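Something for you to look into today, if you have time. Could you write out one complete protein record for me, on any chain you like? Leave the record below and I will have a look.
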Amino acid sequence: MDFRTARGVVVVLDATEIHRDWFLAGLEFQLLRFLAREAGIRPIVVSSVVAEAVANHGREYARARKTYIKAVDSLRRVGGRDTAPTRNVAEEMSYADLLRERLESLWVEVVGVPTTPHDEIVARAVSRRPPFDEGGSGYRDTLTWMTCVELAAAGKEVYLVSQDKDFAGRDGTLAPALAEEVAGTPGSVTLVRHLGKWLTPLVPWRDVTDPREAAALARDEEFASIFAPWDMFEAAEFTAEEAGLPRDAVIHDISYRGSGPLERLSHARDEDGADRIVYEFPIEFEFELSLSTESAKEAGFVPGEGSATGVEEILTVVPMVGVMTVVHDERDLESPLYVDYVDFRVEGLAEPIPRQEEKPNQPSLPLWPEGGGTE
């Protein structure tokens, strides 16, 4: 399976994937969102898994809060009030809403519990059939498994992502008893132990084997597709000096003509976990300006005698290089992606365009295409 053949594949997320990354902000989930949008894979999570994750998060949050307050009080006893931050931490947080919003932003669908009769689940528990363990635990895992069975019975190619040992056999693949259940279905179920490693070969970029680089390329494409066709540059303002024009130029209008592909210059992660990426890209602006005939001749805009009025009306294109800093903060649901800084430098003046009644049709630099994605 690759990027071209992944459309329609179902990825079922187990609770273990949420427990190890409460805010679903890691590289694996960034790749998952990209492949859901662009390759058409279908990530889902059962509602019982969401409920389990919310309950477990509440317990872990309470333990962490208690540990934090105890540490603050201990430090204050030794060093005084000013040696430690405030001990005021909210007793609870609305993780349920946050998790559902995050799943939606990642294109992960929350589905209801399977239609398996309760008597069948009881029989599985009594017989200790996986994913029930020898102690009889495994009810919620069984709901996830029966969801996989229903999907396989409907002819779906299912990949169950879980680090829970109750789904696995000794070799780390799907437990033999579970494999037997779906052997006769028109679909299939495959156990995936490491989401990032499994997703990386599905990306469209050849020779990319590192999940970090795959996620970085996914961020590049995501940014380009979201912000194309770069409407933010329509209201650009430059002084004559900034645009490399003669100082006595009077600028009447500036129009954005187009921009080329992004080149990633640097990538750093700040202390809050946000990714700060610097891009460089070619860009063109068209200037309408007035210029004295003398300055216009010196700049090469007027090859002949020029206007009798001593003032030239010029229409010209200025190619520049843009530098942009973009911040990806996966934990910020309101502003997960934003432009923090933009600047331009002059690449060199283009050949002057003769003033006409209508602006001549000039080919503009290609814009980024709109993102694909699924409906």
Observations:
- The radius of gyration is 29 Å.
- Residues 350-375 have pLDDT under 50 and may be disordered.
- Strands lie at 10-13, 42-46, 109-111, 157-161, 188-192, 250-259, 263-269, 275-292, 311-328, 337-346.
- The longest strand covers residues 275-292.
